[in-house]
Specification:
3 helices, mainly alpha, 50% helix, two-stranded antiparallel ribbon
Length: 74
């Protein structure tokens, strides 16, 4: 019984010690080049089809909808 408690305690300490570590979050490179998804501009999405002015207008209207002074109208 005592051996089982010692083993369980050792396993618990091992699990706690390994769960506290952080894995490195590095970018994966192959042959010196990044092989991930390329970054695009937000207005190049299907909804705006490259229209930057429409994207900026939608962004401004969304932010105004969250502004209490504009929303109430005072």
């Amino acid at each position: 019984m005592r051996n089982a408690l010692v083993i369980a305690g050792a396993l618990g300490c091992a699990v706690l010690a390994t769960s506290c570590g952080e894995l490195p979050q590095t970018t994966f490179y192959e042959q010196g080049e990044y092989r991930g998804k390329p970054d695009g501009l937000p207005w190049d999405s299907a909804g705006y089809k490259g229209d930057r002015a429409a994207w900026e207008k939608a962004l401004k209207s969304r932010s105004n909808a969250q502004n209490e002074y504009v929303r109430i109208g005072n």
